[in-house]
Design a protein that fits this description.
By secondary structure, this protein is an alpha/beta fold. The chain has two domains: about 200 residues, Alpha-Beta Complex (inorganic pyrophosphatase (n-terminal core)), CATH 3.90.1640.10; about 130 residues, Diaminopimelate Epimerase, Chain A, domain 1, CATH 3.10.310. It has 13 helices and twelve strands. It has a six-stranded parallel β-sheet, sandwiched between helices. A six-stranded mixed β-sheet has the order 7-8-9-10-12-11. A hairpin with a 3-residue loop joins strand 11 and strand 12. Helix 2 packs antiparallel against helix 6, helix 5 packs across helix 6 and helix 6 crosses helix 8. GO terms for molecular function: nucleic acid binding.
């Protein structure tokens, strides 16, 4: 977003507005963190602000301030639709296409309000009146910090906002491990700590929350791990029955795919999780080095994301989905073996 656009947006936001902030479907730490941080900022400016999530998000993210104020579109569609129709501004965070909001896609396409996109994913759709899109950024939470900085309002960052932004940066950088973690990212994180984010407390709340059923489910996932040495690849499967047998709750499989990626010599890892209610297999892709899983997800799994982290889905059975992976890997063999790890 250039300086002229920032000044124009700042002028528009100088008067009272009805605003709705929306994350993507199945919100993660970056989505919840960016939405709640922006909420904390906009209410200080005197706006009427609501947060509408396409669906619920994991329990391990519900400790963040303002998270209890989210309106769940799946549960309260009529309430959410009315708020959206009355909104002067709609902020779309951590997604760059309406289809990423699931069942909200149709109404978003019909709205007359002013759209603001803040996102770091590749290939954004052209729907926003104000677009802040930067694929070099580690996270949308880092972008929210820079957005507030461009608005010359970093003095308004509260401990709750700092905590939310730090959480999104932490989770989207894999605890500062991914190469999207730049020196600027670390400086932003340091400033957020200065503003009240407690890094030890945040890490504990995000990563040290386990239940016996989740640990058992992890054991099942690891027992299903398959290694394809020829392609420097590992994958994991989890059937609906295996999820049900271990009392699966939203968020329980978060990070499972990283166990496969952590194996010595593995460049690419993928997890397949059956979602019988939607007749799909959900999948997450992770990689090391320059192997582009965003490209792979777009070409094969109706998805996308970032170079080293992406997601998608399959409408096939689990067996056929795995066979599809095995069938396409030869296409990527040279790229997989070119990665220096």
């Amino acid at each position: 977003m250039n300086k002229d656009k920032i000044l124009q947006l700042k002028e528009e936001l100088s008067a009272h507005k009805n605003i709705v902030i929306i994350p993507h479907k199945n919100p993660d730490g970056d989505a919840v963190g960016s939405v709640t941080a922006l909420y904390g900022y906009l209410i200080q400016l005197g706006h009427q602000v609501n947060m509408v999530s396409p669906n619920d998000f994991p329990l391990f993210l519900k400790w963040m301030e303002y998270s209890e104020l989210f309106i769940n579109y799946e549960q309260d569609q009529s309430v959410a639709d009315k708020l959206l129709q009355e909104a002067d501004f709609i902020f779309n965070l951590d997604h760059n296409a309406f289809h990423r909001t699931g069942s909200m896609e149709q109404i978003l396409g019909e709205l007359k309000g002013t759209f603001v996109m803040i996102d770091h994913h590749q290939q954004p759709d052209d729907f926003a009146n104000y677009m802040y899109s930067d694929t070099s950024m580690s996270s949308t939470c880092e972008m929210i910090y820079h957005f507030i900085e461009m608005m010359e309002d970093t003095d308004r960052i509260t401990p709750a906002m700092a905590t939310a932004m730090y959480t999104g940066i932490l989770t989207d950088t894999g605890s500062f491990k991914y190469k999207s973690t730049t020196s600027t990212t670390l400086r932003v994180a340091a400033h957020l700590v200065d503003k009240g984010a407690n890094s030890e407390d945040i890490n504990r709340k995000i990563y040290d929350v386990n239940t016996p059923s989740r640990m058992k489910l992890l054991g099942v996932a690891l027992s299903n791990l398959v290694i394809l040495e020829k392609y420097r690849t590992a994958y994991i499967t989890l059937s609906q029955k295996e999820l049900d047998d271990n009392n699966f709750r939203k968020g329980d499989t978060e990070g499972f795919v990283n166990y496969a990626l952590s194996l010595d010599g593995i460049v690419f890892a993928q997890i397949f999780i059956e979602k019988a209610s939607e007749f799909i297999i959900k999948t997450s892709l992770r990689s090391k080095g320059d192997f582009d899983v965003n490209k792979m997800a777009r070409e094969n799994w109706e998805g996308g994301g970032h170079q080293n982290a992406a997601g998608g889905k399959s409408g096939l059975s689990m067996e056929d989905t795995v066979n599809k992976l095995i069938s396409i890997l030869p296409t990527y063999e040279n790229e997989l073996h070119a990665v220096d790890i």
